[in-house]
């Protein structure tokens, strides 16, 4: 995220606070004017004029900063300024994975189709995470990390490596959303296979969503994930070979799955259950299945330590 956006965002937040304070003083003063004829205080009139100047100055700066494709939007209010700033910054991120509502009608254009609250319901994210700690492994733009924070988690750590370190994707989407949502979600760039209680701690709830089939060493990855899970794991994954009645994994040595060479294995549900058990999880349940083809699907598993 460019420093200029951060500066303008801060200025916008300062002027918003000023607008709230002024509007309350103004309504009190106009009430007095109406009830006993007390004229508006001179200082309030001066403050209103100064505010107007400040607003015009910020509007000009934001219009100058705005991306050409949005610069034509008419800007008459603080909300318009906010929308212009957000649209400009959102457009700079090359590839959004998550659709995140940033406010003012701006939703990031994620290919991953995450929409609240449907997406949280799909993975069975507990409604109330008050007092809980949550680890989101492979968080990308952080949709689920922010959702966990919104549901009351006292600490959320978002981790990723591949996408955040990639020049093609990067961490810009996560950082922009975190700033705009005024979020306290923490972040760490760490590979799944490096996760350990010493490096990240142990979390009540661990989210491992859309990552398992990217693992070249899926059992090792689940061992690492188990080592940092205190209570519950929520696992979402592509599954394959659903017609096979024994635990089995489809192997994609090249780019057989979705033309993406970073996909390695498509386990069937029996295999996911067996792998979770072997990593030390119990009470394993399938909580959601979205069929993709006769033999493959996306499935959500809940498992406990
Ligand atoms: C399909 S995306 C899923 C993003 C998000 N969890 C979701 O469900 O919408 C896979 C994510 O896993 C991350 N990832 C892939 N390999 C990883 C690894 N070895 N260590 C950490 N993260 C990895 C990618 O960078 C990417 O953010």
Brief rundown of the structure:
This protein has helices at residues 3-36, 42-65, 78-92, 118-123, 143-150, 172-180, 197-200, 218-227, 269-278; strands at 101-103, 106-107, 133-137, 155-160, 186-189, 203-209, 229-239, 249-251, 265-267, 282-291, 297-304.
Count of domain modules: 2
Distance from first to last alpha carbon: 38 Å
CATH class of the largest domain: Alpha Beta
Q: Nearest-angstrom radius of gyration?
A: 24 Å
Listed once per kind, the bound small molecules are:
S-adenosylmethionine
Q: Helix tally?
A: 9
Order of helices and strands: HHHEEHEHEHEHEHEEEHEE
Arrangement of strands in the largest sheet: 5-4-3-6-7-11-10
Which stretches of 5+ consecutive residues score pLDDT under 50?
A: none
Q: What is the SS-derived class?
A: alpha/beta
Overall shape: it is elongated
| Count of extended strands | 11
CATH architecture of the largest domain: 3-Layer(aba) Sandwich
Query: Strand fraction band?
Result: 15-25%
């Amino acid at each position: 995220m460019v420093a200029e956006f951060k500066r303008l965002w801060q200025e916008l937040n300062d002027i918003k606070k000023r607008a709230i304070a002024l509007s309350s003083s103004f309504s009190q003063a106009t009430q007095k004017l109406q009830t006993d004829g007390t004229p508006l205080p001179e200082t309030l009139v001066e403050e209103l004029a100064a505010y107007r100047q400040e607003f015009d100055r910020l509007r000009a700066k934001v219009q100058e900063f705005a991306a050409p494709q949005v610069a034509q939007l008419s800007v008459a209010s603080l909300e318009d300024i906010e929308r212009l700033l957000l649209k400009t910054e959102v457009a700079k991120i090359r590839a959004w994975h998550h659709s995140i509502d940033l406010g003012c009608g701006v939703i990031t254009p994620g290919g991953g189709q995450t929409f609240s609250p449907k997406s949280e319901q799909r993975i069975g994210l507990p409604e109330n995470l008050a007092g809980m700690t949550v680890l989101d492994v492979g968080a990308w733009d952080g949709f689920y990390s922010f959702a966990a924070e919104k549901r009351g988690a006292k600490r959320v750590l978002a981790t990723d490596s591949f996408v955040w370190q990639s020049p093609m994707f990067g961490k810009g989407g996560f950082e922009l959303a975190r700033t705009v949502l005024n979020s306290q979600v923490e972040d760490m760039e760490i590979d799944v296979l490096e996760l350990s209680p010493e490096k990240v701690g142990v979390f009540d709830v661990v989210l491992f969503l859309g990552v398992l089939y990217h693992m070249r060493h899926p059992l090792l990855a689940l061992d690492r994930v188990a080592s940092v899970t205190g209570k519950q794991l929520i696992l979402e994954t592509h599954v394959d070979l659903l017609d096979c009645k024994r635990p089995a994994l489809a192997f994609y040595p090249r780019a057989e799955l979705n033309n993406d060479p970073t996909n390695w294995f498509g386990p069937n549900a029996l295999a996911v259950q067996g792998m979770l058990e072997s990593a030390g999880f119990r009470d394993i349940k399938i909580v959601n299945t979205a069929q993709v083809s006769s033999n493959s699907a996306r499935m959500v598993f809940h498992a406990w330590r």
